[in-house]
Amino acid sequence: MSGTFPPTLFAGHHYGVAGLGRNGHAAVTALLTMGASVQAWDDRSEAREALAAHPHLKVAPFTNMLGLAALVLSPGIPHRLPSPHPLATMAMEAGVPILSDAELLFRALRAAGGRARFAGITGTNGKSTTTVLLAHMLACGGIPVAVGGNLGPAALSLPLLPDDGVYVLEMSSYMLERLERLHFDAACLLNLTPDHLDRHGDMTGYTRAKMHVFDHQGPGDLAVLGATLPDYASLNRLLAPTRATVACISGADIPQCDFYCTPHALCDRHGVIADMTHVPDLPGTHNRENAAAATAMALHLGMPRAAVEGALRSFSALDHRQKTVGNHDGVRFINDSKATNADATARALACHERMVWIAGGTAKAGGIEPLAPLFGRVALALLIGRDAPVLARTLAQHKVPYRIVETLERAVPEAYEAARALGVDVVMLSPACASFDQFSGFEARGARFAALVQALVAKPEGTGTQ
């Protein structure tokens, strides 16, 4: 159902790639495979050494940008705020475009004569679940699909799809700022809360970056907007000149929306689409929002309406996103390590009436104060990481029981014992903080939590931490 791009597709084109992480390494490999010549650089020697030798690859620092068709700059390297990286400045002064690898995937497909479609998903929270859910739904509907971008495989590592296929891409604000031609046949902006403001200046700049997902849309395309977006009406008006179909989606019972959820069903203006009572891996209003968005896009892209419910039922939650990783003596352990800010954690806390909550790491601006309305659900908070004392002060002000335990190694057994003592059946890691103080990323943090839970579960029932 899928193939490889022609080996001479970018012959005669010279690209620069700066930053050789997941996206950069894949970009170098793909561009060389398509016939381009590439100059690549990363300050880390191990990243440079991971590249395979190739006659058209030059691994060297950039002294100028002469002859480059484009510079692929790692998403984490700024080209505007808070200050442009010197390589970005060099490229802009030379008139060399700074592009996302997703942009180059689109160009490669069109250069190869391919007509596969593109679906783009963005938002502050929920975009990973929505991306994977949409890909799952399309596959269940018999539509060839490749999924990646900010999540999973880098965009340029995806295969050549047939003309009836769909590329489903999770798009970060960093990636969206670096598009020129990429056209999404279906695009979605789920929600917006303050995040990455150092890179975008303020919420206006952040919103502007996110709205690039709708660039180049026109009649026949679908633009999906979450009902909770700040100033939804203004964003909707911004899309009017495109003449794309705009669909409002909600995870709540808002019949004015085009796609919405009652307590038991996913609906659109034509009636019930799917019974949601047997969809265990999409708990809470926020996941219902994800389901509504994915369904709107899937139907637009050709999925049969009758196949939606089965696809939702067979969906398995992503790792580190409210994923149950173990049960022990009636206590369920939930890994929500992906929740690196208060808004994401609020969505998780709202799904459970009572829990032992493991939180902490490197706090974001505002800390956990926005979670105060949900503190009544917390029987005990166990705090880890660098900013545990910061979180502790907020909890103390709201009279929430807490302990600073510093590490997951202490948190997991103490959480289990506390849950048993307090009669609570849920222990949830939903940190509301970044992970880099103790881990390489939220994935490593979640994996460590899951391993500790599995070690606990492996003990005979009733033994606790003995």
Automatic annotation (TrEMBL):
The Mur ligase central domain, residue ranges: 121-298
Leading EC class: ligase
Location relative to the cell: Cytoplasm
Domain of life: Bacteria
GO molecular function: ATP binding; UDP-N-acetylmuramoylalanine-D-glutamate ligase activity
Pathway in which the depicted protein is active: Cell wall biogenesis; peptidoglycan biosynthesis
Residues where ATP binds: 123-129
A GO CC term assigned to this protein in UniProt: cytoplasm
UniProt keywords, alphabetically: ATP-binding, Cell cycle, Cell division, Cell shape, Cell wall biogenesis/degradation, Cytoplasm, Ligase, Nucleotide-binding, Peptidoglycan synthesis
Location of the Mur ligase C-terminal domain: 320-433
Protein function: Cell wall formation. Catalyzes the addition of glutamate to the nucleotide precursor UDP-N-acetylmuramoyl-L-alanine (UMA).
Family that this chain belongs to: Belongs to the MurCDEF family.
Protein name: UDP-N-acetylmuramoylalanine--D-glutamate ligase
Organism: Komagataeibacter sucrofermentans
Phylogenetic placement of the source organism: Bacteria, Pseudomonadati, Pseudomonadota, Alphaproteobacteria, Acetobacterales
